[in-house]
Amino acid sequence: MSTPTKALNRNIFLVGNLSIFMIGLGFAVRAAIAGNLQSDIYDHIDLANSTAMVGEALGFTFTGFALTLLFGSALVDLVGIKRMLLLSSIGYVLGSLLIIAASMVSPGEGVESLVLAGLLLTGLGWGAVEAASNPMVAAVDPENKTHRLNVLHAWWPAGIVVGGLLGLAISALDLPWQLNLVVLALPAVVMAWLVATTEFPVTERVSSGISYGEMFKEVFKQPMFIVLWVCMWLTAATELAPGQWVDLTLSRVVGMKGILILVYVSMLMFVMRHFAGKLAKKLSTVGLLWLSSLLAAVGLYCLGMARTPLTAFLAATVWGIGVCYMWPTMLATVSERFVRGGALFLGLLGFAGGMAIQFALPKLGAIFDSAKIEAAGGIEAFEKLSGDELDAVLVTASVESFQSLAVVPLILLPIFAFIWLWDRRQAASKKEGSLDNSASTTVGNQ
C-alpha cells in the first residue's frame, strides 16, 4: 500500500471513529438527561405516565435513526459519503439547540413538540453516520470486515464513557443539565470540518461493478438476509434499550447513579471490540452472536435482581460482555455474506435496529409505569409515596421491566444455533467435495 493511500485511509478511519464517537456521546447524553426531561417537562404534563412519555420521546431518536438508514443507505452512493456525514453534523447541532430551547419555556404540548423534534434531528444525524461510515470502512478493508467494523464501533462506547462522565460532573457541580447538549454539539462541529477536508472512497458495491438495480434485487434473492434482518430487531433491543434505561430505573434502586453502570459497561466494550476478529475466527461470526445472546439474557435477568452497586456491576458485566459484539458483528455477518447487497443491506439492518428501540423503549416505560402504580396500590397512593416506600415500589417496577426484556435474547439462541450448525455443515460439505475432486484428479492422472 502506497504512502498516500495509507495517509488517506488514516484520515478516513479518523473521520469514521469520530463520527461513531459522536453518536456514542449522544447516547450517553440522552441517558444522562432523561431524568431531567421527566422531572422538568413530562411530570408536569402527565405524572402517571411520565416514564412512558420519556421512553416515547427517547424512541423518537431511534425513529430518526431508522428512517435515515432506510433511505440514506439506498442513496449514499448517489448523495456521497461526504455529504451524508455533513448532514449528520447539522442534525446533531440543530437537535441539541432545539432541546435546549424546549427547556427554557413553560411545560406544555409545544414544549413536548420541541423535545421530540430535537431528538428526531439527533436521530437523523445518527442514522446518517451509520449509513455512511459502515460501508465506508467495509470498502477500505474488505478482507477484515469483522475486525474493522468492531474497532470502528469501539468508539461508540468510548463516546458513552466520555458523555457519561461529563454528565456526572455536570450533575455533581450542580451545573445546568443543558450543558450536556452543548458538549454534544462540539464534536459535530469538529467532524464537519474534518469531513469537508477529506476525500472518501466509493462503496464496495460500486467498486465491484454491481448495478443499483442488482443491489435492490438481492433483497428478494436472499432468504437468509431476511432471517438476519429479523434477528437485528432483537439484538438491537437487547443492547440499546437497557443502555437508555439504566439511569432512569436503577439509580434509586441500587443506591448509585445508573449512568455509572453504563460508563463501566462501555469501557468493557471499548476494549473487547478490539478482539472481535480473533474471537470470530475461533467461533465464526454467528457463533459469536449465539454466545453474546446467552450472556445478554443472563445479564438482563440479573440486572433486574440487582439491589446494591456490587450486584449491579456484576450483572452489568455479564450483560456488557454479551451485547458487546452484537451490533458490529451483525453488520459484518451481513456484509461478508451478501456483498451484492452493498450499503442497502447494511442500512436495512440498521433500520431494523433503530425501529426496534422505537418499540422497546415505550414498552419498557409502560411496563415500568404499570408496575409502579400496581405496587403502590393506585395513582393516588403513588403520588403520596416518598423515601423508602417510594424506593420499594421502584424496585418492583425495575425488576419487571428488565426481566421482561431478558426474554428477547433467549429467542435468538435457537435461531443463531441453527445458522451456526447450518454453516458448519455447509463448510464440511464443501471440504468433502474438494477432497473428492482432488482424489478424482489424482486417480485420473494415474
TrEMBL record:
InterPro entries: MFS, MFS_dom, MFS_trans_sf, MFS_Transporter. Keywords: Membrane, Transmembrane, Transmembrane helix, Transport. It is found in: Endomembrane system. It holds the Pfam family MFS_1. The keyword Membrane applies. The chain crosses the membrane at residues 12-33, 53-72, 84-102, 114-133, 154-173, 179-202, 223-241, 253-271, 283-306, 312-331, 343-361, 402-422. This is Sugar MFS transporter. It comes from the Bacteria. It comes from Microbulbifer epialgicus. Belongs to the major facilitator superfamily. PANTHER family: BYPASS OF STOP CODON PROTEIN 6. Signal peptide: none annotated. Coiled coil: none annotated.
